[in-house]
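Hi R.,

As promised, here are both runs. First protein below:
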Amino acid sequence: MTGVDSAISRRQFAGTLLAGGAAAMLGPGLLSGFEQMQVSLRLGIDNFAVRAFKWKAKELIDYAAKLKVDTLFITDLQAIENSEAAEKFSDVHLAGIKEHADNAGVALLVGTWSICPSSTTFRDNYGTAEEHLSLGIRVAKALGSPAIRVILGSRRDRTTEGGIEARIVDMVKVLKSRKVEAMDAGVKIAVENHAGDMHSLELAELVEAAGPDFVGVNLDSGNAVWTLEDPLQNLKNLGRYVLTTSLRDSIAWKSENGVMAQWTAMGEGAVDWKEYFTVFRQLCPHVAVNIETISGFNREFKLNDDEFWKSFPTGKPKGYEQFLAFAENGKPREPYQRPENISRTRADQNYQQTELERSIAYCRKIGLGVKE
C-alpha cells in the first residue's frame, strides 16, 4: 500500500468507491435514494480558472495537491505539451506527467478545443479536426483520463450558414470517424455546452446522433445562462450524458435591454447548489465536480432586440420561461475592477486564485470532496 493509499480513511475509500467505480458500473438512476445521499462527490479544479498563471501540467498538479482536491481537469493541450521538444506529446513526456499526478494523489482529466471543422473557433494547430481528436484520445489514455473534453464552438456559430444544426452535423461526422479509436482506447468524448453554442437539448441531440456509447457531455453550468437556460434545468436535460464538469455560479437580473448576467464564485450567485447537487447525485453520481471560476464581467442578452433572436431562428428555446424566472429576483452586480497599483498579470492571478479557492472552500462546506 502506498503512502497515498494509506492516508485514505475508510469513509473516504467508501466514498471514492461509490462515487467512482461502483456508481459507474451501476449507471445513473440505479442508486437507491439512501445510496444517492451517501455519495461523496469528488471535488476538483479546471485549470482555466487560474489561466493567468500559465502553469504547465506538473505545476497545476502541485497546485491541485496543495488544495487537497481529488481531481485536476486540464482543459487545454498546451498545458500538457512539452514545448521544449520536437515531439510535444511523446510517450515518455506523458508518462512523466502521469507519474507526477499519481505520486500527488490527484486524478487527471483532459480536454482540448474545437473539433468542429466548420466552426468559427476551429484552429488547425493540431492538424485536421480528426487528427486533433485522435491526439486528444491518445493523450487522455496516457494520462488515465476516462474522457477527452472537446467543444463545438461559440455563440457565433449559431448565425453561420446553416446555423448550429449544420455545425452539429459536421461535428458528428468527426466524432463518428474516431469511434473505434476511442472505444479501443477506453476513452469517451465529452462535448461541452460552450460559450453559447448549443442549448442543452441541442447538445443532447448531438450526443444521440453521434452515439451515447462513446460520446457524452462536459457540463458547464455557467454557459447554460448564455443559451437562456436556468442552470438547474440544464443539468436535468443533460445529467444522464455527463462525463465531466466545469462548474461555476451565476446570477442574472433584468436590464434595460433584456437580461444582464455575471458569473461568480461558487455560493455567491443565484444557483441553489443544495438542490443542484441533489439532482446531480441522482443523475451522474460517478462524475467529479470540477470548478471553473470565470468571474468579474457582465454580459447582456438583448432580448428586446430582434437582432438578438437571429441566434434562435426557430423561436425562444425550451425552458426560456425558467430562465426569466432565474433572472427575476437577481440584483445588479458591478464588474470586477482591476487594481491600479500592481501589474495586470499579478492582479489577474490574485483575483483568479482567490475566486477559485473561495469556491473550493464553499464546496467543501456543502459536503463535496472525498479528501479530508
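And here is the second one, sequence first, then its C-alpha cells:
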Amino acid sequence: MTDAELDASFADLGGLAPSPQLSARTLEAVRRERAAGGWRVRILAGVGMAAMAALSLLVVTPPERGDPATMVERGSGESAVAVDLRVAVRRPTGELARFAANERYAAGDTLMFRIHTSTATSLTLRRDDVVLWEGTAPGGAFDVPVGYTLEAGEGPAVFTLSGGAELQRVFVPAVMP
C-alpha cells in the first residue's frame, strides 16, 4: 500500500490525515505483517495438503491381505455335539414309566437311559463318580445297554452324561424303604 492509498483510506474514515512519519511506519508494519503472514499461510496450506494426501492413501489403498495358507475358515468347521439324556423307569413287573425327578422310587426299579446325539460321539455315563457305561453313541437315538437297579436304603444320586457340548445331569432322590 502506498502513502497516497493510506492517506485516502484515512480520509474515508473522517477526513483526518496522519502525519507522514506515522504513515511510513504504519505502511512498513503492514508490509511486514503481510510478508510474515504469507509464509504462515503457505506453511499451513502445505501441511493441510500433506494431511489430505495421507488420508487419501489410507482411503484409496486396500488393506494388506494375508497368506491364504495360514488363514482359518470360520463357520464351516465341526460344531460341538448336541446330546440329550432321557431316563425311563422299568418296574419289577415289567411296566415302563416315565422318570420324574420329584418322585421317590422303590427298591428293584431299574433306570433305563436313552441318549439322543446329533452325530456319533464318545460318551460316559456315571452315577456320582462311578462309571456305569462308556462307549460310542451313534447319531440319533441310542439306548444304553446297561440299566441301573435301585437298592433298598440307597440315598439320592446324580447321574451324569459327559462327552457332548455340555454335561447332562439327572438327580434321583433317595429310594423308598
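A quick note on the second one: The helical segments are 3-12, 20-60. Let me know what you think.

Best,
J.
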